[in-house]
Amino acid sequence: MKNPMLEAVSLVLEKLLLISNFKLFSSGAPGEDKARNTFYEINSFLRGDVLEVPRTHLTHYGIYLGDNRVAHMMPDILLALTDDKELTQKVVSNKRLILGVIGRVASIRVDTVEDFAYGADILVNHLDRSLKKKALLNEEVARRAEKLLGMTPYSLLWNNCEHFVTYCRFGTAISPQADKFCENVKIIIRDQRSVLASAVLGLASIVCLGLASYTTLPAIFIPFCLWMAG
């Protein structure tokens, strides 16, 4: 049975992660103009390689399948609105991506290397070194990715593109990016100044909006939870 409190905390953390990385999905992405003119040495990629594309705040991952094809997990709200593959197979726009993250709907899809990287530089098998884990055979990695193609639930914390890639590459779904974000949140929560700040904001809301349940309860409950967690 799912714990409502844990689900609520998870939802809040996911929204915080989305907000903290909002620049990644902004309409003026750094690689937008560069994408049309970037050339990739796809002959150097091997089937089963992990392709890594560093962004402003996050890193996007995919599995190279050969023949200029990359399997990667992409949030896309259009998947919840239509079954028309001609529409959903088009390159995911920023608006579709953001709404897909919020709606928690995604697919593991296949795109060209150019569409996957979108003008950014590509690192190959960098996770092998950063995680210091033994990778599976490349053919097994590619087959795992191909078996997972299709729609999938999406979560910034529990099921993102890094979880997909690490499962295919190492057999275990992990996301150091999400783990790092959660650690940063823990540091903020454990900082006693957060308790003081939340208490001050709570009192300010009572003064401005009046004494009511929707102002009083958060003003008491949030500082108390932060104090207990710290």
Structure, explained:
The structure is a single chain. The chain has about 230 residues and is α+β, with helices and mostly antiparallel strands. The chain folds into 2 domains: about 35-175, endopeptidase fold (from Nostoc punctiforme) (Alpha-Beta Complex), CATH 3.90.1720; about 190-225. Helix content is about 50%, strand content about 15%. It is built from 10 helices and 6 strands, in the order αβββααβαβααβαααα. The protein has helices at about 5-20, 85-90, 95-105, 115, 125-130, 140-145, 160-170, 175-190, 190-210, 215-230, and strands at about 50-55, 60-65, 70-75, 105-110, 125, 150-155. Strands 5-1-2-3-4-6 form a 6-stranded antiparallel β-sheet. Strand 1 (about 50-55) and strand 2 (about 60-65) form a beta hairpin. The longest helix is centred in the C-terminal third of the chain and has 18 residues, at about 190-210. Mean pLDDT is about 75; it is low at about 20-35 and about 225-230.
